[in-house]
From TrEMBL:
Protein name: Uncharacterized protein
Length: 324
């Protein structure tokens, strides 16, 4: 990287007195999850688990050290997103995807930050040094740089570094569905009226892979079980994606330009294993009592609520007789 902006993954700097985004010295903090979102869904005292399931926090207790500048920038972003949220699908779909990247990126990075702290402290108790692989340092460093577009003159040239899909969704009132995969930089969010799925550093590759089903969905209001299946497709696609995103980063007179590198190794997906995918999907469908054995039956195509397995036609959400 040729830029000189703060990169906490260079020296694994996660000190509480340095702003998580700019690196400026600070004694202030902000919540990982937007206050308006926690208030609306009464999440403050709910628990959220870390990846290894041995540690959990109240949503409201998750906080990031930040400068006044960064805190103000995210507060202004929250105002825009909350206003769009109140307009439902149309409002959220009208938001610039860069804003959605920044808004979801705050929560994904916040959880990643806590994962780093947890791992650092765990190793410290064992008398070991805190290290992560060069590959992860580079990947997370790129993500952090892109998130700084909220406060720095950073532009994205050509192809965007993310896949973000926003779509109408039917839920019972006040239900909130949320998933955050910090290590794989993935996020999903679903409420009544809309849902969206974000792969924050795939260079749009997964969105392209799922374009056919996204096109078929257009004009329909998804049933929640379809939303879960769609996220499973994105998640498993990320798992089998054999591709390391690379970027051309240039310091220019008016800021930093980030461009997806298209030369060299092209995106490639590994073998789609229906058995592994069915296990993943069953985890998302367990609320409906659907097990892996129901998804994969002998001499039958895999169960799907998105596409008819024989004709590949999109399944009308209104035809699905399951609770929402």
């Amino acid at each position: 990287m040729t830029h000189t902006l703060f990169n906490p993954f260079k020296d694994l700097n996660f000190d509480e007195h340095f702003c998580f985004l700019s690196g400026a010295l600070t004694n202030e903090n902000m919540t990982v999850f937007p206050v308006w979102l926690m208030d609306h869904f009464k999440l403050g005292n709910e628990r959220i688990e870390m990846m290894d399931k041995t540690k959990s926090y109240n949503y409201s207790d998750l906080k990031l050290p930040c400068s006044s500048e960064v805190k103000t920038a995210f507060e202004e972003l929250d105002v825009k997103v909350e206003a769009a949220y109140k307009k439902g699908f149309e409002g959220m779909a009208s938001l610039d995807q860069e804003l959605l990247f920044q808004w979801t990126g705050r929560m994904v990075y916040g959880m990643l930050y806590y994962e780093m702290l947890y791992e650092r402290d765990r190793l410290l108790r064992q008398g070991e040094d805190f290290e992560i692989s060069v590959t992860l340092r580079k990947r997370f460093g790129y993500f952090h740089l892109m998130l700084q577009s909220l406060i720095e003159p950073i532009s994205f040239v050509g192809k965007k570094p993310w896949s973000i899909a926003v779509f109408p969704l039917k839920y019972s009132a006040d239900i909130f569905s949320y998933r955050n995969d910090a290590v794989n930089l993935m996020f999903s969010f679903g409420v009544n009226e809309f849902g969206f799925i974000a792969c924050l550093q795939d260079n749009g590759v997964i969105g392209e892979k799922q374009k056919e089903i996204l096109d078929k969905m257009e004009g329909h209001v998804l049933h929640p079980i379809q939303f879960e299946e769609l996220y499973a497709r994105f998640h498993y696609s990320d798992y089998i994606l054999q591709y390391k995103p690379e970027y051309k980063i240039e310091n220019q007179d008016n800021g930093i330009a980030i461009e997806v590198e298209t030369a060299g190794k092209q995106p490639h997906f590994g073998f789609w294993d229906e058995d592994i995918y069915a296990q993943l999907l069953s985890n998302y469908w367990q609320v409906y009592g659907i097990e892996k054995e129901d998804i994969l039956k002998f001499q039958m195509p895999p169960l799907s609520f998105l596409e008819n397995p024989y004709t590949k036609d999109f399944i009308n959400p209104e035809s699905i007789d399951l609770p929402f």
